[in-house]
Amino acid sequence: MRTIRIGSGAGYGGDRIEPAIDLIRRGDLDYIIFECLAERTVSIAQTRRRQNPELGYNDLFDYRFTRILDALVDLRAETKRAPRIVTNMGAANPTAAAKRCLAMARERDLTGLKIVCVTGDDKTDELDHYLGMTTIETGAPLSDIDGEVLSANGYIGCAGIVEALDRGADIVITGRVADPSLALGPLVHEFGWSMDDYTRLGRGTWVGHLLECAGQVCGGYFADPGHKEVPDLWNLGFPIIEVDEEGNGVVTKLPGTGGLVSVATVQEQTLYEIQNPHTYFTPDVVADFSQVRIEQEAENRVKIHGADGAAPNGFFKTSVGYHDCFIGEGQISYGGENALAKAELARDVLEHRFEIIGLEAEEIRFDYIGFNSLYGDVISSAIRETSGPGVGAPIEVRFRVAARTKTAEMAHEVGREVEALYTNGPAGGGGATASVRDIISIASILIPSSDFTIGVELLEA
Fold it and tell me: In 233-307, which ranges are E strands?
């Protein structure tokens, strides 16, 4: 039975590039995918696109493709086959990204290279038609959003990628495509799966889900010293999945790389961000991971089979990004046996100061980092009283305050008051910092898939 090898080159927008280049050079891959988008990433990219219509793609696009294309040049010189590349680094402007990729390829005399961009996910200019729709997060109408709308992008499926590959694409650049669809597209193209063959589509979606976070399935997010040991984490390899015509496969990684591919790492990644393994909704299929079988075949080789699927629900989840607020933040450190008491006094000072200056905040949060910032007062106190090293009072505390405000000026007041603690007490504060962040939030709606028109444009070096 024929198999193809798909590798993962990125699990998020700022991921490492070296493991991906190692896969391109040594992996004997048919395909490598780069998953580089998050919900807010697209909104930020839309803002840049409005400022400059030639931008709006991934910030690290040039950084990554400089190395990717250089690796392709080397493979040609060595008369070795090169993998086809599928990525959502196009973000809010896949057309501009494809043109940039074309220019970079021509600079390297990479002739005959076919670059295809996939469009159709952007609903920003049509959002007025959907203001009455219910947002998934709040249950309120989309029109209730309190802030400037920046973007609306639907999670489209693999159809555009399949068409691009059918047209001979060496590099496929998309915008907001569902993460598993980046790998499902090559499988549908290679094996000729029908788009109503839901069992195979469900299996291919599992493959994509395992690959989409790159190093996680090779032990990156799995590692927990003393409990779940992972060798040479500093040299973590990225995953490869060998997939057969039925959609089953083997998860592995390159020899000589760090990390671990085991039943447990694959199990953890299978459950990652899955609310219900019976019904994992994607634009291509409702995948069913409830009966999957995961078996260790050899060292760093894990067999996967048994996924299933059902017809998609006819909607594309669409993320609407909007300017929500500003967050003003200040931090300062206290040390010694009385560190926590000093930090608590600092909080008391700030609470009164915020009243005096009339701070207009929707929410204020105080954290004692190293004591209660992760789990809150009740759980943190219980842990410290009953278990492990660190029982009792901490000897150092990083005190943090953050406030949500509607104006940047109000947000700046938070940091100013923290810095004033230097000379206005309590004693011994150091390392004060202040920052203001412009916050983009996301509201999600379901738009009928029939409302989307997928476009495919071919460029050739």
Answer: 239-244, 249-253, 280-281, 286-288, 293-298, 301-305
Q: How far apart are CA 347 and CA 332, in angstroms?
A: 11
How many helices, marked H, and strands, marked E, lie in the chain?
12, 18
For 109: left if phi > 0, alpha if psi spans -120 to 50, otherwise beta; the answer is: left
Residue 344's CB is within 10 A of a number of other CB atoms, namely 18
Listed in order, strand segments (DSSP E) in 406-429 are none
pLDDT, tens digit, 9 for 90 and up, residues 384-399: 555 444 456 777 899 9
Match 């990479």 to its residue by tokens.
110
List the domains of the chain with CATH numbers: 3-121+156-313 (no CATH), 321-442 (3.30.70.100)
pTM: 0.91
Residue 385: predicted pLDDT:
58
pLDDT, tens only, 211-246: 999 999 999 999 999 999 999 999 999 999 999 999
Q: Is 272 exposed, middle or buried, given 0-12, 13-18 or 19+ CB atoms closer than 10 A?
A: middle
CA–CA separation, 282 and 184 (whole Å): 11
Q: Distance between CA atoms of 51 and 263, rounded to whole angstroms? A: 47
CA atoms in the 13 A half-sphere facing the CB of 447: 25
Three-class secondary structure of residue 45 per DSSP = helix
Is 150 in a helix, a strand, or coil? strand
Is the alpha carbon torsion for 89, 93, 96, 99 positive or negative? positive
Identify the pLDDT of residue 258. 98
pLDDT tens sequence across 63-104: 999 999 999 999 999 999 999 999 999 999 999 999 999 999
* Per-residue model confidence as pLDDT tens digits over 295-342: 999 999 999 999 999 999 999 999 999 999 999 999 999 888 788 899
CA angle 74, 78, 81 (to 5 degrees): 85
The pair of structure tokens assigned to 268 is 């953890």
Q: Say which DSSP state 425 is in.
A: S
**Token pair for 146:** 């309190």
Both tokens of 260, joined, read: 């671990």
